[in-house]
Amino acid sequence: MIRSLVVLATLSAATTAFADDKPAVDPMYLPGYVHVEPDGDAPLAPRHAGEWVPPRHRLTWSSLSVIRYNPLGLQEIFDLGYEYKLFDSRSVLLKDSFVGISFSPILTPAFANPGVTLKFQPLAILRLEARASLIQYFGNFNLIQSFASPKLATFSDSDIKSQGTPTATTASDAYATTGKNFGLTGELRWAGMRDSLGRAQVEARSRFNGTYHDMNLDHGHTVWYDQYFDLLAPQKGWTVNNDLDVFARFNLEGSAVLRAGIRYNYSRAFYAANDRPELENANQRVGPIVAYTFSEEPGKRSTKPTIIGILNWHTVHPYRTGQDVTQMLPYFVIAYAVSGDLLQ
After folding, report:
1. DSSP string, 236-285
2. Region of 148 on the Ramachandran plot (φ > 0 left; ψ -120 to 50 alpha; else beta)
3. Are strands 115-123 and 111-113 parallel, antiparallel or unpaired?
4. pLDDT tens digits, residue range 111-136?
């Protein structure tokens, strides 16, 4: 349902590296923490009370619970993983470099998507991931529905509902099935200087994901409606999704943090050159995103509790700009994220 939601949140900690000793974490993507300090030759150990230095070996976890509307969605993303720190360095760019592996299931009422993720963060500003997973659709909530070709597909909300609802003379077009996914993700982060009081800062992030689908479809169909990405996806082929976020970060009392900014999203499916639909299957939306972290305290078994809200409007979509759903109706998300470090 909602893979782009995983891009919901606040910028990861590498972005605060250029400002002070307080780490910041993206609870959507980082089960651990990226804590960076000014360059120096001192041994890699806490230099003052309250400072936390990531250990060589870490067992991390994170949880993201999401409710979404337009399209409708409900999901839980869980991540339990091991991370190995690459460098004993105080360098802003190198201190939090690591490689890791995690078990990363995605659960929704419509499908289960267990997977394994390999992670590589060579620099504090760059993160790479590769995820292999299996997917099982349960055949409920009018999903999944497949079509003979992109040109013949009808996958508006109204069409999906009517085609998935059985009548006295017709059966539901929705059915249970299985498949495999392989995803590649790259994330770039940036942070500007803080204000003179150290309370405000500009942050930016771009997160790109490409997913290869290999689905078992009935009737020799070649495409299917993927509600997770809100795209007409190929049976065997790629979809891409990119979230670009620009935030203003405000450090509040204690260790609370408020981020408010703008999100731009682009997503697209790719088909054979001779089988493209008349309406280009590419989506774009833009609007505000807000995230409030109650406490940023690294090195705890449960920390970084964060509430996220997104209110975006579709600017390009085959059905959500007036064709089936009014463009005035926003894409709406509310989510809760939390993470921790189990070896602390």
Report:
1. EEEEEEEEEEEEEEEE-STT-EEEEEEEEEEEEE---GGG--SS--EEEE
2. alpha
3. unpaired
4. 999 999 999 999 989 999 999 999 99
DSSP letter string over 96-135?
A: T-EEEEEE--EE-SSEEE-EEEEEEEEETTEEEEEEEEEE
- CA–CA–CA angle 7, 8, 14 (5° rounding): 70
Beta strands in the chain (DSSP E): 57-69, 73-85, 98-103, 106-107, 111-113, 115-123, 126-137, 146-147, 177-191, 200-215, 223-226, 231-234, 236-251, 257-269, 282-293, 303-316, 331-341
192 CB-contact burial (10 Å; exposed 0-12 / middle 13-18 / buried 19+): middle
Domain count for the chain = 1
Count of other CB atoms within 10 angstroms of residue 329:
12
CATH number of the domain at 112, please: 2.40.128
Report how far residue 47's alpha carbon sits from residue 19's, in angstroms, rounded to the nearest whole number.
Answer: 17
Picking from 60, 61, 201, 33, the residue whose alpha carbon sits closest to that of residue 121 is 33
CB 249 within 8 A of CB 203: yes
What domain range is 65 assigned to? 3-42+49-341
pLDDT digits (tens, 9 = 90+) for 289-329: 999 999 988 778 999 999 999 999 999 999 999 999 999 99
Pairing of strands 257-269, 57-69: unpaired
Residue 128 contacts residue 86 (beta carbons within 8 Å): no
Pairwise CA distance, residues 338 & 65, whole Å: 9
Alpha-carbon distance of 209 to 128, in angstroms, equals 10
Residue 344 and residue 341: Cα distance in Å, rounded?
6
pLDDT value, residue 44: 60
Query: Does residue 32 carry a pLDDT above 80?
Result: no
Torsion of the alpha carbons at 160, 243, 95 and 339, rounded to the nearest 10: -40
Residue 245: left if φ>0, alpha if ψ -120 to 50, beta else—which one?
beta
